[in-house]
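Re-run with default settings, no changes from the original entry. Doing this only to confirm the output is reproducible before filing.
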Amino acid sequence: MLVMVPEAGEMRQEGGVYVKGYSVLVLSADRTWRRAVQAMLEDAGEPGFGAEYAESLVGGLDRIAAGGCDGLLLDLNLADSQGLSTLVEIHYQFRSLPIVVLVTREEERLGEQAQQAGARDYLVKEELTPLLVGKALRYAIEGAKAREMVRQAELRFQELFDNAKDVYFTLDLEGSITSLNKAGEELSGYTRAEAQGMNLRSLVAPEYLSQCCEMLQRVHSGAEIPPFEIALLDREGRRVLLEVCTLLLYRKGKKEGVQGIARDITEHRHLEDLLRQSQKLEAIGRLSGGLAHDFNNLLCAITGHSELLTDRLDATDPAVSNVAQIKKAAESAAALVRQLLAFSRQQVFYPQVLNLNEIVAAVEKLFSRLIGEHIEFVTELAPALGLVRVDPTQIEQVLVNLVLNGRDAMPEGGRLTIATSQCELEENLASRHGIVPPGAYIVLAVSDTGVGMDAETQSRIFEPFFSTKTMGKGTGLGLATVYGIVKQSGGYIGVYSAPGRGTTFKVYLPREEQPGGRRQPRLPGLTRAKSYRGTETILLVEDAEPLRQLAREFLAGSGYTVLEARNGKEALRIALRSESRIHLLLTDVVMPEIGGRQLAEQLREHDASLAVIYMSGYPNDRMLQSGILEDGVVLLEKPFTRELLLRKVRESLDVSADAT
């Protein structure tokens, strides 16, 4: 009895055990041979065969098309068969179907021709045995299945090869391309046909040519090739940086070529450069802020003692002019320190919600005079511009510095443009000096048609004291100040330039959704008297002795009683032991162990009406949030003059008296 296997390779049960069988279509009009084949298939052993029969070519083709047929046993002597042409037709329609041809002994030559036309094997009818039939069919079917598995594997590999995001390639031993995937086509700009045979040396950027030759030498020597980076030039000459991993290919023990995977890391390296640049600027900013704090203490002592010395000299004394020069130099140094503080984002920040067009309009006339008649000055201000939260004075300084930079880039004249616009970024915007995250921004752009800058200059343009000007023509702090102000305002800045093509600076400031209220700097109020003198008791706390002595002399000279302390702990002891009431605390912000803010809080527990003035070379502690002055806090920035110190003291005392 025949075992019918309706599906190709389906399991059938025999004696409680499942064995795998093959489904075979016997296509023959000779019933005698069909019966003989049927008997032989029953005795062919495992895996068993299930057979179906067809007497005509048309019926056989319909059965094959229905599916589930693992193999075909074909008698070419069908009534509607055309011999080998029929075989060719079946093989063309069902290319993966294994065919074994039945021929007579006289037709053995026909069997050989059938193999050449696509049959897997042929059997001579007069020589058929169960073993021979089973062996031929199993060989044909299992061989076909193996070939199909290989074909599917190759297809999957080709799909992986073609659809990979990385570049897959192979090279011969001379470095010529032998295969390339779609990603390689897109990256290089060459089609596969064009790339085929191109040597790697012709694609490598000149500075990497020696490295390329070294890699090929390692190939010839059979040495292992570690992962490496290399830059290629695409069809348009664009430089693409690649990270490459390669493996030597061997065939029969001999080197045949190289296969490799390459990943485009151009953008990755660009982002790394941005991060390093940002970290470098941040480190410079911290160093600048720390130096500025200590330097301000020295400058305060220099300017203060210059004032005292001037008071003690007769107006006709020749030394007066020398003292004036000392004070002038100190004031110039103080201006440089303020620029350093702006760069390091550690200056006092008085923000207002406003329209940038208002600031540009306010300084437009100044710029016309500033840049000279040889430069055409143009403004392109967007109507209905959104609002931003910035310190208007600092934004004016940003504009002044950028305009001066543009003017200096056009010694022979040109065009300088200030433009405003607004934009919505839906994804990160990368520039040379950082990444602008998605969001709503107001954009301030300052453009010139000057000499432009190369990439190396652009990478250092915001560093303090970096300047392309000749010695003595600029401090190198103008653009560093711009960078610091923009970052402190919560914004971002980018520069776009090329030699001979001018420069554009773009400042991105977050758009303020609601106008809210304008926040003006809080001042302690106006004094009722023109004089800054007084008789109150002041607790002076400053760890820098020269500055403490100077402040004491200023205050004592104006009638105040001064109690001195070198630090917070000493100030607490003095305050608790003082028999007279302390009216005002004048303290440094940053001190060891007990800082100025903590000291003020402890003293106010005993006297809530105590007036407090904080002194600082840079406002960078917890009482100042992101450099924005809190309400009710009075800050005296170092270096200060005698007049400024006495005015702040008098105003704070008067406000405290009014409150009580």
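The two ends are 118 Å apart (CA to CA). Residues 1-19, 516-530, 619-628 have pLDDT under 50 and may be disordered.
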